[in-house]
Amino acid sequence: MASELYTTHAAQYAESVTHNIYNAHYERPSLQALMGDMTNLNVLDLGCGSGIYAQYLLEKGASRVTCIDASVDMVTLVNTLLGNKVHAYQQDLTLGLPNEKTDSVDVVVCPLMIHYLADLTPFFTEVYRVLKPGGYMVFSTHHPCAESELRHANNYFDTQEVVEQWNTVGTPLEVRFYRRSLTNIMQAITQSGFVVSALSEGQVDPVVKTRCEKTYKKLSTRPAFIFVRCNK
Ligand SMILES: C[S@@+](CC[C@H](N)C(=O)[O-])C[C@H]1O[C@@H](n2cnc3c(N)ncnc32)[C@H](O)[C@@H]1O
Questions:
Q1: Which fold has domain 4-144+181-231?
Q2: Origin, by domain of life (predicted)?
């Protein structure tokens, strides 16, 4: 069940991630740095949110972009933003990708979604199935060693559901996600058949220095997310 942050408050979430420091000046440039040329490629955007990545993929020349999200409100925002330039539909990704054909997709992007899944292996196995041989996936997720993650850990190696209140849209909203070890993430990737070709901890845009020195210093010295590229 998606948090209210992504349903009732989807429009405010979309507004916030357009310009905020964590998404606009840290997460997106860091994940985009792992992507290659998109010209004429068939791309899946999993956990697409409001379509900000889909817009980028179209600008980079992708010939077909399919946006998938558990939240109908997010799918509506994508359709409002991009109309028939993309194909967008609602799907809970814990149930796989039943509408996508095997060996059909060049690239999968999945920014900040996998921490909402209790079990990663079936998800990566489905992504592997739909990718063409030679295709790749890029994703970002909470850094397993970020302070905010470790705060909740009784045992770092146990995957645990975390419940937090997030202030992303200016009002505290409950968000549930899974805190997990790097080992857990890597095992799910490799057991699905993928080979990791890049891993980064991201780089905050220097422009943030003038906007909020404290956040700039924090993200420059304590990464919040990891960014991974895996190849089929
Ligand atoms: C943090 S937002 C990221 C949105 C977008 N990728 C971005 O970077 O702007 C996470 C998104 O994942 C979606 N999501 C969470 N759990 C999901 C699931 N089980 N299946 C599909 N989408 C899910 C949420 O609805 C939300 O839109």
A1: Rossmann fold (3.40.50)
A2: Bacteria
What is the Å distance from ligand 1's center to 50 Cα? 9
User: How many C-beta atoms surround the C-beta of residue 83 within 10 A?
Assistant: 9
Look at ligand 1, atom 11, and give the residue with the nearest C-alpha: 47
| Contact status, residue 199 vs residue 30, Cβ threshold 8 Å | no
Task: Supply the residue whose CA is at minimum distance from atom 13 of ligand 1.
Answer: 47
Closest CA to 67 of 83, 41, 53, 87: 87
Residues lining ligand 1, Cβ inside 6 A: 2, 6, 17, 47-49, 52-53, 69-71, 74, 92-94, 111-113, 116
Each residue's pLDDT expressed in tens, for the chain with a length of 232 residues:
568 999 999 999 999 999 999 999 999 999 999 999 999 999 999 999 999 999 999 999 999 999 999 999 999 999 999 999 999 999 999 999 999 999 999 999 999 999 999 999 999 999 999 999 999 999 999 999 998 888 888 899 999 999 999 888 888 999 999 999 999 999 999 999 999 999 999 999 999 999 999 999 999 999 999 999 999 9
Kind of pairing, strands 225-231 and 131-142? Answer: antiparallel
Residue type, 35: M
DSSP string across 18-37: HH-HHIIIIIHHHHHTT---
**CA 88 to ligand 1 centroid distance, Å:** 13
